[in-house]
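A further point concerns the way the authors explain their paired sequence and structure data. For illustration, here is how one protein appears when written out as sequence plus structure tokens:
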Amino acid sequence: MERNVWRTSSRSGSNGQCVEVRDRGTAIDVRDSKAPTAGTLSFDSVTWATFITGIKAGR
């Protein structure tokens, strides 16, 4: 993932119901694409990797 660039999932539809993610190197940020200035959630890399692994496993 390129650092400091907001990305939208390739699986997001065109309905605007998606989140954006960016890698800052020290943290992974997540925000609502419909309200990008409303705030972000930040995760350390270990927590983010655990979250992604769980999603891929269907949890």
Notes: The chain has one domain: 7-56. Residues 7-56 form one domain. DSSP finds one helix and four strands in the chain. Helices lie at 45-56.
